[in-house]
Amino acid sequence: MKVEELDFELPQELIAQMPAENRSESRLLVLNRKTGDISDRRFSGIAEYLFPGDCLVLNDTKVLPARFFARRTTGASLEGLYLDMSGGGLWHVMLKNSRKLKEGEVFDLLSSHGSVFCKILAERRLDDGTWHIRPQSDLPAEKLLEHIGYAPLPPYIKRSRGGEKPDYDRQRYQTVYARQSGAVAAPTAGLHFTDELLNRLDEKGISRAHVTLHVGAGTFKPVTADNLEDHEIHSERFEIDAQNADIINRTHQAGGRIVAVGTTSVRTLETVAQSGGIHAASGDTRLFIMPGFEYRAVDAMITNFHLPKSTLLALVGAFAGMDNIKNAYTHAVKERYHFFSYGDAMLIY
């Protein structure tokens, strides 16, 4: 598939810089993938399209405050993104403005107030440009990030040094059901749910299952190849336990629909389903879903609007059909929907 087929024109002003004031009052584009029909709704009314016996599958990953700031002894500023631990107390990070940084150099890790929190050693620059660094602190990474970190908003959401209201972003760039720490980007389709809305769906007889997929920075990696098949898909850690696998299987057996909330839930379910049915599993997935892929587990999905020429746009195109997705995105632009992480949502069924 040519990557150009995933391109579309998007006015910059439609890229959401802030979330809706109330989570569930974001807009919802509803796409019937069989007929191609499109409806404009509010997310708070999603229960209209969900039925007793359906099951929502939610990714319960918790976003780490993974963005941080540092300062070299020269006074030069650094901006970092924590990716994961690399063993032996080393952090694996991305560092902006690090071209002149040298291996073995010690610099200052700054607190959220701008003061020096601790020293940090630039241990090794990796071949892909990322770094292994070693904080000179006894705190575990997650605890240390609580002191120094900001919400790891994607680069198209503009915030100077963490923004004027960093606590607001840390709260809103997190689902209300997040519980398993490890992501450095949010599963954004879930940001539209409130506890109140979830309770209303419970009362309607819609069950819930949880999976975990820790969203990595690779989710924003642009596709630079001409052919989609030549793109190297990123790897992400996932887990589904026996209890939640059983909820999903019982839903299928009773004739209910599996409604995946977000492409991360889709990717988890379809990864597990490749080996036959839904069962307890964990590991790393490099599943690349593109047009021609045969879905085995997902009957409907809730998702945000994705970047042009992205693997996530290919994923939803594989589910709904590329013509339907192109029509839906043209409609969304015309009707001034908001796009990407803090933007509006789609329901595809």
Automatic annotation (TrEMBL):
Gene Ontology molecular function: S-adenosylmethionine:tRNA ribosyltransferase-isomerase activity
A cellular component term, taken from the record's GO annotations: cytoplasm
Residues annotated as transmembrane: none
SUPFAM superfamilies recorded: QueA-like (SSF111337)
E.C. code: 2.4.99.17
Keywords, in A-Z order: Cytoplasm, Glycosyltransferase, Isomerase, Queuosine biosynthesis, S-adenosyl-L-methionine, Transferase
InterPro entries noted in UniProt: QueA, QueA_dom1, QueA_dom2, QueA_sf
Pathway recorded for this protein: tRNA modification; tRNA-queuosine biosynthesis
Protein location: Cytoplasm
Catalytic activity line of the entry: 7-aminomethyl-7-carbaguanosine(34) in tRNA + S-adenosyl-L-methionine = epoxyqueuosine(34) in tRNA + adenine + L-methionine + 2 H(+)
GO annotation (BP), single: tRNA queuosine(34) biosynthetic process
Gene3D superfamilies: QueA-like (3.40.1780.10)
Predominant location: cytoplasm
Function: Transfers and isomerizes the ribose moiety from AdoMet to the 7-aminomethyl group of 7-deazaguanine (preQ1-tRNA) to give epoxyqueuosine (oQ-tRNA).
PANTHER family per the UniProt record, alphabetical: S-ADENOSYLMETHIONINE:TRNA RIBOSYLTRANSFERASE-ISOMERASE (PTHR30307:SF0)
Subunit structure, interactors included: Monomer.
Family affiliation: Belongs to the QueA family.
Protein name listed in UniProt: S-adenosylmethionine:tRNA ribosyltransferase-isomerase
Gene for this chain: queA
